[in-house]
Amino acid sequence: MTRVTENNESNESNPDIEISRRQLLGTVGAAGAVGLALGATGGALVQSAVSDSGTAGAHGGAGALSSLGATRIAFDGDHQAGITNPLQAKGHVIAFDLAPGAGRKEAAALLRRWSQTARRLMAGEAAPTADTGIALDAGPSSLTVTFGFGHSFFDRTGLTDRRPTALDPLPDFSGDRLDAQRSNGDLWVQIGADDGLVAFHALRSLQKDAGEAARVRWQMNGFNRTPGATGAPMTARNLMGQIDGTGNPKPAQPDFDKRIFVPAVGPGPAEHAWMGNGSYAVVRRIRMLLDDWDKQSTAAQEQVIGRTKATGAPLTGGSETTPMDLAAFGADGKPVIPSNAHARISAPEQNGGAAMLRRPFSFHDGIGADGTPDAGLLFICWQADPLRGFVPVQRKLDRGDALSAFIRHESSGLYAVPPGPRAGEYVGQRLLEG
Ligand SMILES: C=CC1=C(C)c2cc3[nH]c(cc4nc(cc5[nH]c(cc1n2)c(C)c5CCC(=O)O)C(CCC(=O)O)=C4C)c(C)c3C=C
Ligand SMILES: [Fe+2]
């Protein structure tokens, strides 16, 4: 079943799958081959319609769209979009603090405005008020907008008793060099899209929507590989040149949902039920000391990670997806994957099963005062409980990770990301109106 939408008009046959009437007509009307790719990646459904001649821009522009431009991710669903979807080429993360005097009522109105805007932009439509035109001609381009609440949000809105304990501040780590101005925040928004203008359009629209209710606390920009740049889809590389993401939990694994999402129903106090199907995001700006890293030989770099640079295969052999053999020793009597290798120390079997879904963006903010690139990883990871995901792993990495010599954690945030909205609902409604 396909839901047809044109501007605001919709039928309710299937709230998860959306295709604009113009796209549908364009697709059906094409004489040649028609590709209609429907794929579910975890909670958020992805839909793309392409024809020989492409499809017209749902946003109102005249041009034809490639599949990259036409791909649309549903805003409504069990989980918010932007958690299990493939990495997009462009990302923005932005944190806001509620303005002095703003409380629960203003926060609810803001989340309502933001959700309305995000729902429309993710469908490839114009912003509800005073659209800037930045994304005219473009399709939704896999845009996702994801909203979260920081620890301080609950005090500001008088909802302290509804704050889950999982949102307790992260512990200090010895290697942290955190900038408080670029950490935390009442509200957090993650934007991803496969087109830079579409991503910026969303950022600008949401910033304008904030109006007098909230002020920007910090904002960061990131990027990943553009889909289609490689011969076949592959795990992304980071700015150190490593294949990064191999060990991520996979949606097909039976315990995936349990690891990444808060259970839909209990256990836990009823006051925290609003987080059912939600997730917790840990966000760290991690600077890479690239001049130091680039001085290392490839062999030395591979010892730091425990995997080969070219293919991402473990040093114990095989291909990228071959499990690491952590018990293998070389002729020199040393473990083949060194005891301080990053992939060994962070592996779930070394951390009582602790796992997280890493979904980062690279960043490059020019050249720092010391003449080295101000570049690295906007590390974003998702888990049902940070105390069974990020925290134990980072504790261990903090004590003996060979990668520590080449990175610096510069900012940090932890956010409760509520479940996806139902049709007509706004994100966080079950907290703010429950
Ligand atoms: C606390 C969590 C982690 C931080 C912080 C972190 C930073 C970080 N990692 C890389 C590069 C790689 N990480 C890899 C694996 C990996 N890393 C973590 C956790 C953190 N990384 C986990 C849980 C894993 C998976 C371990 C496993 O399941 O085997 C890898 C290897 C490839 C892969 O599995 O993704 C690389 C490469 C950088 C550059 C970085 C900070 C800048
Ligand atoms: Fe890592």
From TrEMBL:
Keywords: Heme, Iron, Lyase, Metal-binding, Oxidoreductase, Peroxidase, Signal. Residues 235-420 form the Dyp-type peroxidase C-terminal domain. Its EC number is 1.11.1.-. It holds the Pfam family Dyp_perox_N. It catalyses: heme b + 2 H(+) = protoporphyrin IX + Fe(2+). It comes from the Bacteria. Its main location: other. Residues 80-224 form the Dyp-type peroxidase N-terminal domain. Its cofactor is heme b. It is found in: Cell envelope. NCBIfam families: Dyp_perox_fam, tat_substr_1. Involved in the recovery of exogenous heme iron. Extracts iron from heme while preserving the protoporphyrin ring intact. Belongs to the DyP-type peroxidase family. This is Deferrochelatase. It comes from Streptomyces goshikiensis.
